[in-house]
Every structure is written in C-alpha cells, then in structure tokens.
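[step 3/7] inverse_fold.run input=structure_tokens len=283
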C-alpha cells in the first residue's frame, strides 16, 4: 500500500493483532473456490482482501469509483466483482481509529513451509496457517523488512493468467528499504527469477515465475518505514479517475505527472486510508 508514515504505522499496528484478522477469518464460511483449474502458479498474486473499519463506506466508494459490485457472504465480509468476475473481498475490521489496508495473497507451494521460511528469516507469522473450506490454506505474514501480505495454497488451483481488464488488478510492487534483502526473501518463497528493468529505475527488480513477471521490488520512496506493498488498478483515464476518486473522499498522494511513467500513474488512499495506485495501461 501507499501511505503517509503515520497512516502506515496505524495499519501495521492493526495487522500485528493476529486475533483481529482471525476474527475476520471466522466470518468467512464457504467461500467460493478461486479456480477449478487444478494448476498452481507459485509467485502469482491470486487474491486481494480489503480490511476496512467501515465496510459500508468502502462498498460505496469502490462501487462508485470502479463500478464494482458485491456479494454479501456474512454481515462482515463481501466478495468483490468487476462485472461478473470475482476479484477480491472486503472484511470489516471492528476496531476504532484504524485505517483500511489492501492485503494481497501470494500463491505458494506450501503455506506452512513459507511461514517457517518467513520466521526463520526474522519475519513474523501474524496469522498462522489455517484452512478455509473450498478456498485453501491461508496465512498472514510480515516479511523481514516489514511488508504485510498473505500466503495461500488454493484448494482447487490458481486462477489462470489473463489480461487485466479495466478496473481490475494490474500490477504489484514491494517498495523496500533493502532491495537486495527483499529480493532474496521473496525468491526463497516462490522461486522467482530476477531481472533488472532500468527503464523504471536503477534498482527496479522484476520478479518472474512461470514465465511471467509477477511483481517488482524497488527502492521505497520518501521516508516510509519498512517495506510497503503497492497494488495497482488498471484504469482508462488516470486523470479523470483521480479526480473522481478525490470527489468521492479519497486523498490524492500523487497526482499524475509527466516525470512519473509519462503521467500514467496516480497514488491515492481511499476514505478509510487504504492505498492503491491507479494506472493507465495499453495492452
């Protein structure tokens, strides 16, 4: 995510309380399978959950911004759809004065081994591995440099690769205070091969698995503490969508500007503080 320093600190404080997300987990019965492909793609981000202190407000914001619709699973959790495609979930976080947070879930061959690798590398298991019927085995961890994300071994296979449609997840980056250490850690989890993309900066590392770039590791901007996951949504017109997001209560942390990817990118936080990047992308 992309936050001011104070907002990020509040988010991390929430996620360190494992029982809080465990409570969310108990509200997620009979979640639909992510796929029936039977195939697995370690290193791929296969799901996103928004943990939010105001589920109703989050539904309104994302529904108006992206046209997303929602299937209520329980009073505290909804499935997010872009048109008919299931792309994520939202869970209510019952705690005062807390910011929202988008949590990406990475496919790994073995969740328990991945958690052990994380803790052995001085990371933390925020939520130990548990099973969700039809969804798979899941855990929540913090990497050794501070980035929070989920691990999953899906029950029936990972979703197949497909081009990102408008208003769907496009890309993921880990903004790191120690790019080399972060690269080594994530490579150990999912067997990434690493290459440098100097067009994006001298220290921009593409992490490839299954023949496809899955995410990137880059130097963190500014004075953000620790690692920060940045999640990207593809939009048709970044200027218009940034203005629309702001009109709906978002905070614009970086408006589109020519010096950054030719003006194709904006960084916002939603009304509950959850961050995301908007980007135009011609495929």
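[step 3/7] decode complete -> sequence:
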């Amino acid at each position: 995510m992309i936050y001011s320093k104070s907002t990020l600190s509040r988010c991390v404080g929430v996620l360190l309380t494992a029982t809080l997300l465990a409570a969310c987990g108990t509200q997620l019965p009979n979640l639909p399978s992510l796929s029936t492909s039977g195939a697995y793609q370690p290193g791929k981000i296969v799901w996103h959950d928004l943990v939010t202190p105001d589920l109703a407000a989050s539904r309104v914001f994302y529904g108006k911004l992206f046209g997303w619709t929602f299937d209520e699973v329980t009073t505290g959790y909804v499935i997010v759809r872009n048109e008919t495609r299931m792309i994520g979930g939202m869970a209510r976080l019952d705690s005062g004065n807390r910011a929202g947070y988008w949590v990406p879930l990475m496919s790994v061959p073995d969740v328990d081994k991945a958690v052990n690798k994380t803790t052995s590398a001085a990371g933390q298991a925020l939520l130990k591995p548990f099973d969700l019927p039809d969804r798979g085995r899941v855990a929540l961890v913090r990497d050794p440099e501070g980035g929070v994300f989920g691990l999953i071994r899906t029950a029936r296979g990972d979703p197949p690769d497909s081009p990102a449609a408008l208003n769907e997840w496009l890309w993921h980056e880990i903004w790191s205070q120690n790019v080399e250490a972060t690269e080594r850690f994530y490579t150990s989890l999912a067997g990434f091969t690493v290459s440098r993309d100097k067009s994006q900066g001298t220290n921009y590392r593409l992490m490839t698995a299954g023949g496809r770039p899955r995410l990137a590791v880059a130097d963190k901007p500014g004075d953000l503490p620790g690692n920060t996951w940045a999640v990207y949504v593809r939009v048709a017109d970044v200027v218009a969508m940034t203005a629309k997001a702001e009109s709906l209560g978002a905070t614009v942390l970086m408006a589109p500007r020519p010096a950054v990817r030719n003006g194709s990118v904006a960084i916002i936080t939603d009304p509950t503080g959850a961050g995301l990047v908007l980007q135009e992308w011609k495929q």
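[step 4/7] annotate
The first strand starts at residue 45 and ends at 52.
Confidence is low (pLDDT under 50) at residues 1-28.
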